[in-house]
Amino acid sequence: xxxxAASLRLMVAHRALFRCEYCKIPDLxxxxxxxxxxxxxxxxxxxxILSNLAYCCPDCNRYKxxxxxxxxxxxxxxxxxxxxxxxxxxxxxxxVDGVIxxxxxxxxxxxxxxxxxxxxxxMYRKELIINELY
Length: 134
Ligand SMILES: [Zn+2]
Fold this sequence. Notes:
It is a single chain. By secondary structure, the chain is an alpha+beta fold. It has one domain. It contains five helices and six strands, in the order H-E-E-H-E-E-H-E-E-H-H. The protein has helices at 6-15, 58-64, 89-92, 105-113, 119-130, and strands at residues 35-38, 53-56, 69-70, 79-80, 93-96, 99-102. The strands form three sheets. The protein has a two-stranded antiparallel sheet with strand order 1-2. It has a two-stranded antiparallel ribbon with strand order 3-4. Strand 3 (69-70) and strand 4 (79-80) form a beta hairpin. The protein starts with 5 loop residues before the first helix and ends with a helix. The site of zinc ion (ZN) has 8 residues, from helix 2.
């Protein structure tokens, strides 16, 4: 983990409207502080600049780690993850009954590796939907 100035963290959070830029849950009431993710990890040459940072819930940040992408099942082609700086969320994902579905290969690999649809996360998302917070 690298040092990110408090002012830069705040800019990232504001830009994201205080929601995880990957799974879209709000940080309000989550109980654990959200983190700032290097979309392109430092070890892959990523910089600590606004255009390479994403506001991120602890789950998404943990599952993503320093990865840049993955392969779909039974495939060998590397597919990059959804990039909140260059991609539009609605173009890559849809939500049905609390479950996030990938609409594109980028969406599909992101859903899988980030474990968007673990039972706990779907349950939490459904609660947010019921309370009109998602
Ligand atoms: Zn998330």
